[in-house]
Amino acid sequence: MDSDSDPDGSHVSATPPRDPFPPPPRPPQPPPVSLKVASSSSSHSKPKAPNPSHKAPTQSSLPPPPSPLFTNLPFRICESKPVVFSSSVSSFARLRSRASLTTSDEKLKPDGADCVVEPPPVVVAVNAPPKPVRRKPPNLITDTITSPPVKPPVFRTTGNGEGNFVKLNLNGKRGKKFPSKYKGVSKSRSSYAFRGKRYKKKEADGQGESLLEEDSDLQKQVEDEANGFISSVEDAILAVKAEASDENLTKLLNLVYGYDSFRDGQLQGIKMVLGGSSTMLVLPTGAGKSLCYQVPAMILPGITLVVSPLVSLMIDQLKHLPSIIKGGLLSSSQRPEEATETLRKLKEGIIKVLFVSPERLLNVEFLSMFRMSLSVSLVVVDEAHCVSEWSHNFRPSYMRLKASMLFSELKAECILAMTATATTMTLQAVMSALEIPSTNLIQKSQLRDNFELSVSLSGANRMKDLLILMESHPYKEIRSIIVYCKFQYETDMISKYLRDNNINAKGYHSGLPAKDRVRIQESFCSNKIRVVVATVAFGMGLDKGDVGAVIHFSVPGSLEEYVQEIGRAGRDGRLSYCHLFYDNETYLKLRSLSHSDGVDEYAVGKFLTHVFSTETKQHEKISSLVIESASLKFDMKEEVMQTILTHLELGEVQYLRMLPQLNVCCTLNFHKSSPNTLSARNTIVAAILKKSHVKQGLYVFDIPAVASSIFVATTNVLAEIQTLKMKGEVTYELKDPAFCYTILKYPREICSLSSHLTKWLTEIESCKVRKLDIMSSAAVAAINVSNTSELSFGAKQTLSLQSRILDYFNGDDKCDTPSKTTQNCAFLRADIKVFLQSNRQAKFTPRAIARIMHGVGSPAFPNSVWSKTHFWGRYMSVDFRVIMEAAQTELFNFVDRNAALAT
Ligand SMILES: Nc1ncnc2c1ncn2[C@@H]1O[C@H](COP(=O)(O)OP(=O)(O)OP(=O)(O)O)[C@@H](O)[C@H]1O
């Protein structure tokens, strides 16, 4: 970790916060002692009521904090003339030199005396008119005023620490001691340790005994404090159980989290859940949605299951659970021992909140465990927009989270779906899948109002523009910054460029080893790294309060993505800066990439024929589809095939049932007994011998085929060969990851099914493109805001983007936005003709040709091969559909010409 910090970084982290009246820090946590432990203890010393004078000063009780005005944007990003899409865009550097002429910047520094910012006159709350907001100043590195000391309340530990995360040893630091149960009471502990040293010396002086007594007094005091804390939490829980009043809930909140009041929407959500009503909760990023399931989890009798799309997100959420709530995690990427340990704790009733991936949740064994012995009070669907194919982040596995399944299989009593970014259409889809009545929607503004949003038009000099931005006020003073890019290579390139220019930056993307990613995130959170240059892989669920700026190096794929990413900034409520570099080339590149998941009816038909082709139409037979070869054969990405299969399982007709993914090809080597001897006493080995072919003395077979032939599950076959391996009888190797499924019903005709599926997938593809167009048009509109009224250019850009975002989330996102692609091109057809003639050996579809013309690879036409063609990416600016139509015509002509030549 040390290698990540450099002199620049340590300077950044050492600088005290600028704000003389900082918002209360995340309150200290109580000692990590579970309710279960507490209930066995009878001697509770009642806690002292937290002394109000010990609380951190709240915003309302203090003079208004200094805050910059909108007009303090450091530069005028662009003149208010319409954007012209050409490569010769105005450079940011030139724009900045124009900006330096505006004098207001100098006068209105963000740390300047008590200026209170009036909020922009835009409705930011759906249900409420805009209120004047007192903005907190941004987090800056040049702060010189130290914060007033904040005395922690008595029973809470300092910081949230590692909480449950460490106890479950999820960080993999095996061999390290678990932190002390009373780790939180750090002061007492350290003085205890110190005294331990003194004790040795004093012992010699004959004073050891009295010190020993003193130490045990301290230990007792710590234990009493912990017990007292638990006792008061238990009392507060009992009070809420008796009456879930605002007062009782607020008491519990204060006790466990140290917060004085609930934020907008929290109390409403908690009460709905406690009342057993399934609820859809839409609150902005950083609004505190997690609290809406954590508080009920303390009250409700059964387990709270939290379904999350990403393991990193789950780990983060587990880490942030208050220590009083015992949590656990189950995901498919876990080691078996970890999963076993979590399951044990679940069965013993130790775990109250279980984070689980959707795949794991729907695992047959998992479901049966719940059915048999565990009761689920609440199922939380986090990032619930993933349920809908109309969201920016659709996950096929989330499609399985249907209310019918959650209620019938898990016997869940209530569902809480949460998101910060969902359009009306997405919300409808989510609520319908989860059977949440429209009356149970709690929706607040989907955008916080502490962002200063800006956009500039950029071009070939984007890196330079970024550097200029980061070296100008206020960015140069901001302590923590995230720069979002679209491509992995950009993160390395830009972070290096920034480092070369003395900015402490690190690149982050999903291609990095997990331990490096964890290290970078930790270094960023502890301010050892100032700037993280990341792809979308960074930040989901990241709750670092003092991120002062988010910069988009490239246009995001949708307004949802933009809102999620800027949502990492200003989570402490302070004013934060979000700048977006818009460039036409990236927009076109992303638009092309939006077509990479598209499919044709022809390919879907071929795929379905394969899925439903079994020698004998045998029901309950386990079929498999080897991912790599199928992907090549049908020219479809793995996710697309998974989406189709999931639809076949969960659509109006259930054609099949998905089984866990598996490496299906097994190569077996017999070592001790001969294969025939073993098969005589083992039915699975007998079936293996029947279904294998022998290659160089090794038996090669398909696991699902063997399992089907003797009517057992694939897991039984795997378990058996594993047992034989333990006995030294065999060794084996597995390969070919595959989708496995059992057919329940054969479609009457493949044609109409493939046409129906293609229509659905094409709508999803168009939805993706439309989202990018809407994002792009919002950015361009902000660049083009006129600068005639008294509002500053920065304020106008903020207003422009805010209103676009809110309109989008509240309105009809199906409306068409004019595309910036060209609809025709004189040489297109002639070029396609030449392309076909020079690649006679390949079998193209119109889509494959359009992808090549757009410079987008696919499984059957990979970049590595096709980027060498002269036409690669040549028609990126021409609408994809226009190219497909031209390609179709030319393909027909090509076939006709060849047929004519042949006759
Ligand atoms: N009532 C409250 N008062 C003060 N702080 C709060 C309150 N509720 C939550 N918080 C704090 O707000 C921060 C953000 O909470 P949380 O991570 O739950 O947000 P979120 O809505 O899930 O955001 P995202 O959608 O971006 O993940 C946390 O640090 C949390 O402790």
TrEMBL record:
Residue ranges annotated for the Helicase ATP-binding domain, each copy included: 270-440
Classification via CDD domains: DEXHc_RecQ4-like, SF2_C_RecQ
Catalytic activity: Couples ATP hydrolysis with the unwinding of duplex DNA by translocating in the 3'-5' direction
SUPFAM superfamilies reported in the protein's UniProt record: P-loop containing nucleoside triphosphate hydrolases
Chain segments carrying region Disordered: 1-73, 128-162
SMART domains: DEXDc, HELICc
The enzyme's E.C. designation: 5.6.2.4
InterPro entries for the chain: DEAD/DEAH_box_helicase_dom, DNA/RNA_helicase_DEAH_CS, DNA_helicase_ATP-dep_RecQ, Helicase_ATP-bd, Helicase_C-like, P-loop_NTPase
Pfam families in alphabetical order: DEAD (PF00270), Helicase_C (PF00271)
Domain of life, source organism: Eukaryota
Pro residues bias: start-end ranges: 17-33
Composition-biased stretches (Low complexity): 34-44, 51-61
UniProt entry keywords in alphabetical sequence: ATP-binding, DNA-binding, Helicase, Hydrolase, Nucleotide-binding
Stretches assigned to the Helicase C-terminal domain: 462-633
Similarity section: Belongs to the helicase family. RecQ subfamily.
PANTHER family found in the cross-reference section: ATP-DEPENDENT DNA HELICASE Q4 (PTHR13710:SF108), DNA HELICASE RECQ FAMILY MEMBER (PTHR13710)
Annotated protein name in UniProt: DNA 3'-5' helicase
